[in-house]
Design brief:
With 120 residues, the chain is of the alpha+beta class. Helix content is 28%, strand content 28%.
């Protein structure tokens, strides 16, 4: 199966969502918090399985810049200073397609760690 191509990316600062539209018709709205806690960076993912670092206190994080990386990805710069994750079109599609279960897993991990989200 051919990976969908990203057609359009829009940052909605006020609502804190990144809107993505792909060529096969998929449309996703991903929160800045969700994108930050699932950054593809080594800081978040570690350098191998089991080395992931649970990201906490990211409820208020915003995206301050979006930098193109070739024709295949973007680097998202977050208000907490994080700027080392390169989000490929494939990874953004994965985050959108699996958003419900990945967000649920993140909330489960927070609860397991005894961390409460500070709701805005």
């Amino acid at each position: 199966m051919k990976m969908p191509t990203l057609l359009d990316i829009k940052l909605h600062q006020k609502s804190g969502f990144l809107e993505l539209n792909f060529d096969e018709g998929s449309h996703f709205e991903l929160s800045c918090e969700y994108l930050r806690v699932y950054s593809p960076s080594a800081e978040v993912r570690g350098h191998g399985p089991g080395q992931e670092v649970l990201q906490t206190n990211k409820e208020s994080v915003t995206i301050t810049d979006i930098r193109p990386v070739g024709n295949y990805a973007v680097l998202l710069v977050f208000s907490d200073g994080h700027d080392s994750g390169i989000y490929t079109w494939e990874y953004l599609y994965h985050l959108g397609f699996h958003q419900k279960e990945m967000w649920g897993e993140y909330l489960r991990r927070l609860k397991q760690a005894g961390v409460e989200r500070r709701l805005q």
